[in-house]
Amino acid sequence: MRISFRQLKKLPVETKGGKVLGRVCGVVFEIDGQLVAQYEVSPSLLSVKKYLISRDQVMSISAEKMVVSDGVVEVSAWGKGGERTAVTAEPAAMRE
To answer: Who wins on pLDDT, 60 or 79?
Structure first.
């Protein structure tokens, strides 16, 4: 199956467990091998927060959505004052 960048850029992304992360907003390429190294995912158009998803964390890509491993999202924790902390993506290292 092939998918254009225009189609990929609008693709919804969720974890295997069903947590919606947002939509693909960009791609990081590995120039030497001409491969996708990471996918940039944004929860919304106005959000400054982005997830970097390594290609190794992608479980499946279809015309409808991208499914990534549950390990992409850290478990939420409760802060000192009882407030809930934001869910953030795990850092994904670039390959050299």
So the answer is: 60
